[in-house]
Design goal:
This protein is mainly alpha-helical. Helix content is 56%, strand content 0%. It is built from 5 helices and no strands.
């Protein structure tokens, strides 16, 4: 079995600058959680980026490397993470409840949602018919 490695191109300078800007804003958001102070710091940072918008290629790469090093030095010790992102505390914590659980509801619970359970029973019968049409009727020796 062959292992495939996803192919990715190196980032362009523009992509690196945009990624750096976003990382810096997330870092500022972690340091300055009070919104007005954060917005002030973000405005100052945007002004710093705008100052160097039209510099030559060689100087731009030098500034980019310096900015990445500065970010590493000033990075917050606990970067703000969104809960459902990959490093968030609730990533992949969504519990998937299988459909068969509804079959074990008490009739009084089912009576609270009569339209849903009526449609569900119709769907189950339709699925069984589709299965038997495709694979044939199930035989008793195949069941466990």
């Amino acid at each position: 079995m062959a292992v495939t490695i996803p192919f990715s191109l190196p980032l362009t300078r523009k992509q690196r600058v945009l990624k750096l800007y976003k990382e810096i804003l997330r870092n500022l958001e972690s340091w300055y959680y009070y919104r007005p102070v954060f917005r002030y710091q973000a405005t100052i940072m945007r002004a710093r980026f705008d100052e160097n918008k039209n510099v030559p290629e060689e100087k731009a790469m030098e500034l980019l490397c310096e900015a990445e090093e500065e970010l590493c030095k000033k990075e917050h010790y606990a970067i703000k993470q969104f809960p459902y992102t990959i490093r968030g505390i609730t990533y992949m914590r969504n519990v998937h409840v299988p459909d068969w659980v509804l079959d074990y509801w008490h009739p009084l619970e089912k009576a609270q949602f009569p339209y849903y359970f009526c449609k569900r029973e119709d769907s189950k019968l339709e699925y069984i018919k589709m299965w038997e049409k495709k694979y044939g009727p199930s035989s008793p020796e195949n069941s466990h």
